[in-house]
Amino acid sequence: METNILYTHKSLVEKSKLGDRNAQYKLYELYVDAMYNISMRMMHIKEDAEDVVQDSFIEAFNNLSSFRYESTFGSWLKRIVINKSINQLKKKKIPVVPIENQMYHIKEDTEDVPPDIDIKNIIKGIRLLPSGYQKIINLYLIEGYDHIEISEILEISPSTSKSQYHRAKKKLIEIVKTL
Amino acid sequence: MDNFEKYIKENKALFDVHKADKSKLWSNIESGLNKPDSNTKTIKLWSMPLFKVAATVFIALGLFSLINISLIGKANKNTQNNVALQELNDINSHYKGLVAYQVKLVNKSTQLSSEEKKEFLSFMDELDIEYELLKVELQKNVDSERILEAIVINYKKRIELIENLLEQINSSKKLDNDDVYTL
């Protein structure tokens, strides 16, 4: 079953490897919105997000021969988008990991979140978090990476990723409650 | 995983709130893509190490033979020229003295009028010009054998002319002598 998932859009990928422009466009159409949203969550600025998406698709199609179905095409492409976004943020000197003085003192007891919480408020709440917290929340909760993958992406240890995530989540809940 | 996390993961799709400008992004992407491969698979021979070695050897051999040919050609040309010049010298030493001696005889002859001498010498001058031209041709080394032949013919013509002239002189001498005896 897992193998089948890995080979999603195999024929389009194989044709794209040979430079078939139609197949490349079909793949692009299938993934562009998802990639754009990932990039927007990371970059927040439309033009920056578009640049990242463009560069990611160009890199993906030009290096498609190195794609060997070790993951799905979507997750391979997503990783390119994430890495490019992180690089762009670093160039702009925007923190991608929480820095010490940004850390909030969190109460030890966990507070329950109201069950009918509006997703829009969560999106708004994430935007109100410090940049480093935002990245870790996005990568773990929305993009679905585990702490080992996040540690690779952000070049931190998995335990740092874990502790930072918990702090970020608690802060997010605090913010969402006030909205 | 707590309820908050579960809630977000279940509603992940709701976080995708943006729409990409597909046509604008694609036109920028397309301009950055590599040109499509042709349907036939291309084997890049020049990227194979064996081909590189073979090409190097081939070029080296080519250069060597070119240099060799030009050197040998030059040497051959020189030897050919030398042989031709040697032959010319031989011809000159054989005929020049002969012609000069006979011309001297003609000049000395008292039985020829100055007009006859002038006419004869003008023929000789023409042959001289022809000889000089042949000498220039010989240096060009087009067909040295034929040119040398022509030079010999040139000399022979001079000798023939002189011989004819001398014969005429002698015959007239004979006539004069006969006259004497008749008298």
Low-confidence stretches of chain A: none
Number of domains of chain B: 2
* Uncertain stretches of 5 or more adjacent residues of chain B: none
Helical fraction of chain A: 55-70%
What general form of chain A does the structure show?
Answer: elongated
Q: CATH H-level name of the largest domain in chain A... which superfamily?
A: RNA polymerase sigma factor, region 2, helix turn helix motif
Quick one: how many beta strands of chain A?
Answer: 0
Oligomer class: heterodimer
Strand content of chain B: under 5%
Largest sheet of chain A: none
User: Which geometry of chain B do the CA atoms define?
Assistant: rod-shaped
Global structural class of chain A: mainly alpha
H-E string of chain B:
HHHHH
Average pLDDT figure of chain A: 88
Count of individual beta strands of chain B: 0
Q: Tell me the span between the first and last alpha carbons of chain A.
A: 43 Å
Number of helices of chain B: 5
Rg of chain B, Cα atoms, Å: 47 Å
Largest interface: A-B, 38 and 30 residues
Overall structural domain count of chain A: 2
Major beta-sheet overview of chain B: none
